[in-house]
């Protein structure tokens, strides 16, 4: 079996390393041929990781794991098509939702990603977790069986939509307030920001319920409790992107939820205001 991971960021590099020393042929594909340093935070081990130039790769892979930022997906759609044969399966290991609609290939699996890491080029640090949640079917069951000897945990779900929406709501709250507050998770120590976070999750939950998802009434409280367990100095991907003046993944998180709210005619005043402010920062980053 052949497998490629597209995107040598923190998530993509961690996935490639988790699949090392298995029977699976794994290529890590990026903008250029290069070598990265991978640091396993828990053990302090370091390894050299080879990256192949995506544009110069013409292999037809059995599985593709796409781990680029959602803002970068449009630029590689032709590359994804080039690397597929008719039975290729594609896993989108990205934040948010809705990106699978951009890919014409028939076998696309949106995944929920639980991998914590950070990249400061050319150094990638993996902090915790090697877990992807995907929809269960015969093909993902076969893949999970093949990967049992690897560090990558492929968790199979009967209803991936539920998991996707749960992670969407988690990201909606903490990504938004850390980005707008230009601060790490300690921003939630301020009552006004904690209340904004709660209001955002409440609005997102109403949209999820209108989309047919069932969650416990205590979900907002449960997510706020999860945030309390975050280290105060922990940032989010959107916080780091904003502070480094990079485009933001708002279309796949806040923007996706807003679009679904509009379909169901649900008022989301806190989300609308937050999204307008984030869109302003996103457009500044695109023109800088």
From TrEMBL:
Keywords for this protein: NADP, Oxidoreductase, Pantothenate biosynthesis
Record's function text: Catalyzes the NADPH-dependent reduction of ketopantoate into pantoic acid.
Domain of life, per lineage: Bacteria
All copies of domain Ketopantoate reductase N-terminal, residue ranges: 4-129
Recorded metabolic or biological pathway in which this protein acts: Cofactor biosynthesis; (R)-pantothenate biosynthesis; (R)-pantoate from 3-methyl-2-oxobutanoate: step 2/2
Protein name: 2-dehydropantoate 2-reductase
Record has Oxidoreductase as a keyword: yes
Enzyme Commission number(s) of this protein: 1.1.1.169
Protein family: Belongs to the ketopantoate reductase family.
Domain Ketopantoate reductase C-terminal: 159-278
Swiss-Prot/TrEMBL catalytic activity: 6-phospho-D-gluconate + NADP(+) = D-ribulose 5-phosphate + CO2 + NADPH; (R)-pantoate + NADP(+) = 2-dehydropantoate + NADPH + H(+)
């Amino acid at each position: 079996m052949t497998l490629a991971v597209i995107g040598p960021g923190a998530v993509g590099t961690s996935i490639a390393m988790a699949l090392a020393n298995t029977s699976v042929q794994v290529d890590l594909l990026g903008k250029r041929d290069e070598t990265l340093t991978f640091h396993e935070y828990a053990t302090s081990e370091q390894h050299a990781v080879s990256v192949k130039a995506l544009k110069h790769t013409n292999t037809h892979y059995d599985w593709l794991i796409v781990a680029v930022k959602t803002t970068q997906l449009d630029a590689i759609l032709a590359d994804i098509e080039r690397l597929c044969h008719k039975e290729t399966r594609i896993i989108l290991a990205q934040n948010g939702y809705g990106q699978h609609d951009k890919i014409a290939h028939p076998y696309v699996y949106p995944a929920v990603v639980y991998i914590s890491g950070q990249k400061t080029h050319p150094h990638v640090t993996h902090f915790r977790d090697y877990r992807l949640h995907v929809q269960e079917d015969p093909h993902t069951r076969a893949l999970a069986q093949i990967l049992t000897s690897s560090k990558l945990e492929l968790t199979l779900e009967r209803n991936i939509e539920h998991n996707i929406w749960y992670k969407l709501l988690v990201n909606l709250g903490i990504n938004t307030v850390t980005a707008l507050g230009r601060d790490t998770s300690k921003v939630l120590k301020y009552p006004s920001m904690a209340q904004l976070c709660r209001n955002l999750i409440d609005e997102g939950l109403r949209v999820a319920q209108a989309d047919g998802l069932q969650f416990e009434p205590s979900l907002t409280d449960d997510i706020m409790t999860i945030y309390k367990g975050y280290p105060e100095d922990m940032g989010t991907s959107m916080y780091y992107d904003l502070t480094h003046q990079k485009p933001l993944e708002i279309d796949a998180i806040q923007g996706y939820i807003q679009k679904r709210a509009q379909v169901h005619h649900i008022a989301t005043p806190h989300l609308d205001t937050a999204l307008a402010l984030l869109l302003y920062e996103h457009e500044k980053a695109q023109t800088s």
